[in-house]
Amino acid sequence: MKKRPICASPSDGSKDKSLKPQDSKCTSGGYLIGRHPECDIVIDDPIVSNRHCLFFTEHKATDTIVVLEDLSSNGTFVNEAIIGRNRRRELEEHDEIAVLDKARFIFRYPKTRQSSAFSQQYTLQQKLGKGHFAEVYLCTEKSTGHRYAVKVFAKHQGQEDKTTTEGLQQEIAVLMGVNHPNVLCLKDTFNEKKAVYLVLELAAEGELFNFIVSKQKLSEDETRKLFVQLFNGIKYLHDRNIVHRDIKPENILMVDKELHVKLADFGLAKIIGEESFTTTLCGTPSYVAPEILADARQRKYTKAVDVWSLGVVLYICLCGFPPFSDELCSKDFPFNLRQQIRSGRFEYPSPYWDSVGDPALDLIDSMLVVDPERRFTIDQCLNHPWMTQTMPGVNDSTGGSWGHCRARRQPPGRHT
C-alpha cells in the first residue's frame, strides 16, 4: 500500500490504524482510496478498484459529518457490512472500514471536534422539510433503531444565553409532559451550543396541507372526523394552559391514511423567542387571529387565538381555499388580507359552498368572530350540533340536519 506524497495517511499492516478526516490535505475536498497511483492511499492489488472508495465531508444541520462512498466492484465494508457500489454511509466514531481483506482502518473524528449529546444518541439522516424556524430531519435512535423526526433550531449570535435560561428548561419540561393521541409527542430535547434539537414521533403520511391539495377539498364527514381530533387535542393543551398559537394545515400531521391526525409545533414561541415568533406570524397572517395583528401594546395571546386558526382550517377543509386572501381584494371589495382579518370579512361563495349544510357554516361563523370574548371556546366547538350530529340530512353533504343551504353569506353583524 502506498500513499500520495502530499497527503498524510495511515499505514497498512496487521494492526488497525486510525483514519481521521484532517489527515487529508487534498484540495479536492475528498480522500480517495484505490489502486490508481493518483489516489490518496494506493493499494496495489488487482482486486482493488482504481477508485475504490471516497471519504468526504458534508454539512448536516449545524454539524459537519464524514461520509464514505463505495465506488468499488468488489466492495467496501464498514463494521463487516458491505456498503454497496455507489452507495453512501455516514461514518461514526470508531467505525471499522475494510477494503476487502487488504487494508483496515478505524475511523476517528479530530479531537477538536465537539461531540454533541444529540449525535451520541441519534443518527441524523435525510432532510424531511424546512419551515420558518427550523429544519426537519429523519433520525434514528442508536440504542433501539427506532425512527423519529427531529426539528433543528439553529442558534444565531447572541441567542445562546436566552435559550439556556432556566425558564426555557421549564417550558421544555412542560412540553415533554404532554401526552395525548392527537398531539405529537415530544420524545427528547437537546439544548446545545449551536442548536436546539426537538426529537418527535414520526407522522408517516405527512401534512394535512398536502392531503387537502391532493383532494381539492374534503367532505363534511372527513372534516368532522379530523376536527373531533383537533378540538380534543387543543382542549387537552388548553386545559394545561398551553396555547398552540400556530395552527395551520402544515402543522397538522397525518398518522395514517385513515385520517388520524396529530397537532405539531405547539409551544414554539418558547423555543425560538417571543419576538421572532410573533414577527414571523404577522408576516404571513393567513391563519392568525385579529388580536395578534393589533398594535403590540394591545396584542392579546389567549386560548381564543387557537379557535380562530381552527376556524380558518375548517373553512379550507370544506371548500379548498382560505376565507381571507389578498387575491380577493378588488374595486368592489377593497380590503387587503390584514383588513379582511381584522374586520372579519369573509363569504361562502357559490358554487363552492352550495353543498355544505348550515350547521358547518354556523360553526365557522362562531369561530371566526373578531372579538375574542365572543368567540367560541373549544368546549363550545365540541358541543356544537355539527360536531354532535349523526343522522344525514338533505342539506348536509354527508351528515347534516339543518335548514336550507346558503350559497353566500356576509352578515355585517359578524364582523366585530
From TrEMBL:
Residue ranges, annotated region (Disordered): 1-22, 397-416
Record-listed ATP binding positions: 151
Record InterPro entries: FHA_dom (IPR000253), Kinase-like_dom_sf (IPR011009), Prot_kinase_dom (IPR000719), Protein_kinase_ATP_BS (IPR017441), Ser/Thr_kinase_AS (IPR008271), SMAD_FHA_dom_sf (IPR008984)
UniProt KW ATP-binding keyword: yes
Feature: compositional bias, Basic and acidic residues: 13-22
SUPFAM superfamilies: Protein kinase-like (PK-like) (SSF56112), SMAD/FHA domain (SSF49879)
Record GO terms (molecular function): ATP binding; protein serine/threonine kinase activity
Domain FHA: 31-83
Record keywords: ATP-binding, Kinase, Nucleotide-binding, Serine/threonine-protein kinase, Transferase
Biased composition (Basic residues): 405-416
Domain (Protein kinase) ranges: 122-387
Highest taxon of source: Eukaryota
SMART domains: FHA (SM00240), S_TKc (SM00220)
Keyword presence, Isomerase: no
Family to which the UniProt record says this protein belongs: Belongs to the protein kinase superfamily. CAMK Ser/Thr protein kinase family. CHEK2 subfamily.
Protein name: Uncharacterized protein
